[in-house]
Automatic annotation (TrEMBL), chain A:
Its main location: membrane. It comes from Galbitalea soli. The keyword Transport applies. GO terms for cellular component: plasma membrane. The lineage of its organism: Bacteria, Bacillati, Actinomycetota, Actinomycetes, Micrococcales. It holds the Pfam family BPD_transp_2. It is a multi-pass membrane protein. This is Urea ABC transporter permease subunit UrtB. Belongs to the binding-protein-dependent transport system permease family. LivHM subfamily. One of its GO terms (biological process) is amino acid transport.
UniProtKB/TrEMBL annotation, chain B:
It comes from Galbitalea soli. The lineage of its organism: Bacteria, Bacillati, Actinomycetota, Actinomycetes, Micrococcales. SUPFAM superfamilies: Periplasmic binding protein-like I (SSF53822). The gene is urtA. GO terms for biological process: amino acid transport. Keywords: Signal. This is Urea ABC transporter substrate-binding protein. Coiled coil: none annotated. Residues 1-29 form the signal peptide. NCBIfam families: urea_ABC_UrtA. It comes from the Bacteria.
Length: 295, 430
């Protein structure tokens, strides 16, 4: 019984990480339809921001909390720069976007390598996160994971509120549901796109701060997350916030169960296989948007 | 709804692009074609002048650059010292450098160029087992000499390679001996998913079976993986009293962070690592691995006149904070071993060196290395170390004497290893 519980708990841990990295992509790829291969590099930028903030402040606790908003703004602004300089010009040319953002990701990786050096750097976890693990019904839950779980749920709720009740959220939803109609109603879709991209990239930056608690920070950090992020968004249903949440935790628990019963190195491959089969039967993902738009 | 399809098409596009890039990178060399059986090419090494060319092949770019750049620095230090003392057989060494770019195919291609176009007398370098396995057929076909400076998984011996790093019975077996000596009965194996950890763990499994140690778990993470929740949960559930770690690179950071988060410490369940040396400690962050064990043949802290001279010469050249480790020391020593072989053979000829290699020795910083002409490995002392807060490693145990290399574990000391060598990829060629 404890083993099953441990598996589920570690699945929730993996799930919250998946959710955190996929959330921003859910906006830019899911809502706007931009295939951004450089999304992983925004995660990397968030991670290096956490490193720089900690180097400046010294105290691990306050610098972790401060780096969350700083990374959000830094990655968000870089996202806007990318949107305005490149992506804006390739509207509705997804294949070109794919290649251009792939190139951007290589450029950003090399920049990071030149700025911070090829060897990886580290962030020290604050004392209140590195203490003894919590014990929940007999299963050990490391404090870092509780923090990441809370962070991802916090981001989901924040995003839900922004999309649901603010004027910006209404504009974003209108643009996603029918771009032309939104435009004719007087919404500046260009400005909306910029803001959506700001939030999406900013969330990647927040995810970057989160992953510094788990591993080393290196220029290629983003590449290990980008594929999983796309996986969650596609499996959850394009443009569906709740789909991403369900998919992230579902895939996390699935990976954890396979990891426990067969082995960690097979788990990832099998999870992909499951998703591929699933998409054969339900190409629109877990949750599909009902729309009359012909786009 | 056409978005996923677009994505798939796009991904295929990228894959195609990547393939094209790789292919265009390969056109220079016909790697592995008709490897060992072909009559060796006539040597083009020029021995008429005042200088003799040698080749250094290390990854100066890509993921392995972190580890391989310092190895090249050590090689250059040896070259400088040899030239300052009058060269080899009266000839000055002149170095041709190649970048292996962390890619096995590039290693093979550049090695071929070093041997057939630059016409070097010997090549020094390589790191990953994949890079060595890719270069092996090239050296056999072109009849060159490679001096390989890194510990590896054993089960290999080519007449064209000299293995200066430890083979299995000089690192992994003594490390298991040490754990057994400490009364550890339940060992958990964790490693990256590639050739070295899998081969090493096969040997550990056989050892454990014979010595009554339980292997309570054997887990592999994909190279570069940072997700260790499941593996650490399994470790916790297994009740292990020690961990044998063959993870590579940044995965170590993620593993040790997760291990600490789960409440483990070096006192309760120590981790013995075979791929973490002083250079890697810097990258992983000493606070994550302080007090953990390592298994190597050399540490910077070894107190001997030969090592003091090596460390101070290195720091004079590359800065007071420069750190040296086992592969760097092996690389440095490999150049001196080659020099000793050439001087014994009185020739730069590959065949003459092979025939005269047996018994050649060099007083390396780690102790005297003696070459075995039978399998082209060298004798080495095994050392277990503990990682200090300073980031350096202190020896806590060492083998009573230098261990004779036995890459296939066929000697009388390893009856439990019978049958392991049958699956090996290359048979002894000497």
């Amino acid at each position: 019984m404890t083993l099953v519980l441990t598996t589920i708990v570690s699945g929730l841990c993996v799930g919250s990480l998946l959710l955190l990295i996929a959330l921003g992509l859910g906006l830019t790829f899911g809502q706007m339809g931009v295939i951004n291969n450089a999304h992983g590099e925004f995660i990397m930028i968030g991670a290096y921001t956490a490193y720089l903030v900690q180097r400046a402040l010294g105290d691990p606790g306050s610098s972790l909390l401060l780096s969350l908003p700083v990374a959000f703004v830094t990655a968000g602004l870089l996202g806007v720069v990318l949107e305005v300089t490149l992506l804006r010009r390739m509207h509705r040319r997804p294949l070109d976007t794919l290649l251009v953002t792939f190139g951007v990701s290589l450029v950003l990786q090399q920049l990071a390598r030149d700025l911070f050096g090829a060897p990886s750097v580290n962030v020290t976890a604050p004392a209140w996160l590195s203490g003894d693990p919590f014990v929940i019904a007999g299963a050990d839950v490391p404090r870092t994971w509780v923090f990441l779980f809370a962070l991802s749920i916090g981001c989901v709720l924040g995003l839900r509120i922004v999309l649901g009740v603010t004027p910006l959220g209404r504009r974003i939803r209108a643009t996603v549901q029918n771009r032309d109609l939104a435009e004719t109603s007087g919404i500046s879709t260009a400005a909306t796109d910029r803001m959506t991209f700001f939030i999406g990239s900013g969330l990647a930056g927040v995810a970057g701060v989160g992953v510094t608690l788990l591993g080393a920070i290196s220029p290629t950090l983003g590449t290990s997350y980008i594929v999983n992020a796309f996986l969650v968004v596609v499996a959850g249903g394009i443009g569906q916030l709740w789909g991403s949440v369900v998919a992230a935790f579902g895939l996390g628990i699935l990976e954890s169960f396979i990891g426990f019963s067969i082995g960690q190195s097979t788990a990832q491959a099998l999870v992909f296989l499951v998703v591929v089969v699933f998409l054969q039967f339900r190409p629109q993902g877990l949750i599909a948007l009902r729309t009359r738009s012909i786009a | 709804m056409s978005l996923p399809r677009t994505l798939i098409t796009g991904a295929a596009g990228i894959a195609l692009l990547a393939t094209t890039l790789t292919l265009s990178g390969c056109t220079g060399a016909k790697v592995g074609a008709g490897a060992s059986g072909a009559p060796s090419a006539k040597s083009c090494v020029d021995t008429s002048g005042d200088s003799i060319k040698i080749g250094f092949i290390n990854s100066l770019s890509g993921t392995m650059a972190i580890s391989e750049k310092p190895v090249q620095q050590a090689l250059y230090l040896a070259e400088k010292q040899i030239n300052a003392a009058g060269g080899v057989l009266g000839k000055t060494l002149s170095v041709v450098t190649s970048d292996g770019a962390s890619d096995p195919n590039t290693f093979a291609q550049k090695a071929d160029k070093l041997l057939t176009q630059d016409c070097v007398a010997a090549v020094f370098g390589g790191w990953t087992s994949a890079s060595r396995k890719a270069m092996l057929p090239v050296f056999e076909r072109d009849n060159g000499l490679l001096f390989y400076p890194v510990q590896y998984e054993g089960m290999e011996s080519s007449k064209n390679i000299f293995y200066i790093g430890a083979t299995t019975n000089q690192q992994i077996v003594p490390a298991m001996d040490y754990l057994a000596q400490q009364g550890k009965k339940k060992v958990f194996l964790v490693g990256s998913d590639y050739v070295f950890p899998r081969t090493a763990n096969k040997i550990i499994d056989a050892y454990a079976k014979a010595k009554g140690i339980d292997i309570v778990g054997e887990e592999y993470a994909p190279l570069g993986s940072v997700d260790f929740t499941t593996i650490v949960s399994k470790l916790k559930a297994s009740g292990a009293d020690a961990v044998f770690n063959t993870l590579n690179g940044d995965s170590n950071v993620a593993f040790f962070k997760e291990y600490t988060n789960a409440g483990f410490t070096a006192k309760t369940v120590p981790v013995l690592s075979v791929s973490i040396a002083e250079q890697e400690v810097k990258g992983i962050g000493v606070q994550n691995i302080e007090g953990q064990l390592t298994a190597w043949n050399y540490y910077q802290t070894i107190g001997s006149p030969a090592n003091d001279a090596f460390v101070s010469a290195f720091q004079k050249e590359y800065g007071q904070d420069a750190v040296v480790d086992d592969p760097m020391e092996d690389a440095y020593s490999s150049l001196f071993l080659w020099k000793a072989m050439v001087e014994k053979a009185k020739s730069f000829d590959v065949k003459a060196i092979q025939e005269n290699s047996d018994g050649v020795s060099y007083d390396a910083p780690e102790g005297t290395m003696t070459v075995s002409g039978k399998n082209h490995h060298v004798t080495k002392t095994a050392r277990i170390g503990v990682i200090e807060p300073s980031g350096l490693i202190d020896t806590v145990w060492q083998s009573p004497s230098a261990i004779t290399p036995d890459p296939y574990l066929t000697g009388p000391d390893y009856p439990w290893a019978a049958g392991l060598a049958t699956g090996a990829s290359a048979a002894p060629s000497n």
